Amino acid sequence: MQKAQYSSSAPKTTVSDDAVGVPQNKWFVAIVNHNNEHNAASRLKSLGYDVYVASQVQLRQRANGRKVKVDRLVIPSKVFIHCTEQQRRQIVTLPYVNRFMTNIAGTAAPGMHKPLVVIPPYQMNILQFMLGHAENPVSLVSLPYKKGEAIRVVRGSLAGLTGEIFTNPEGSEILTVSLDALGYATVKIEATDVERLN
Taking the model in full, what pTM does it have? Predict the structure, then answer.
């Protein structure tokens, strides 16, 4: 599946140690207790770490008809942490961090751990862009419905994002972008807001 980006100039670089061996920050995925995501993130922020909880602010209507903003968690039990490998080894010892996400499909030598999931910076940008701008709820799924058509969003709050478009069983159009180890971020979109990529 084509990698999505919200800007044609978004870098697709892998972060690694530079030429002089200075450790570089990477986006790791910490596993925390359910319903403890924001608390863990707040505690990590107080220690000086750059963290992100994948949530989306949405308007919900109460029984009395009043609309309220709620913060809906999109990826439960996970906190994204931008840190070095050495810092990650310290973070995993904290009582509110259970472990770090590993790539279950990755290969490892017998007796060795599976490789850790590292989210490329451009994919973190896509995730944050979608959750911050989408007017409809964003979901994460393991597989798309079927092979979709490559498109670019040209109108609306997600303008500039590229990905694939699918028609779900209900007949509505779904924009899907690949986020590698996380799966696919999906959101309902109007067919009139997109253009086909050649």
Answer: 0.79
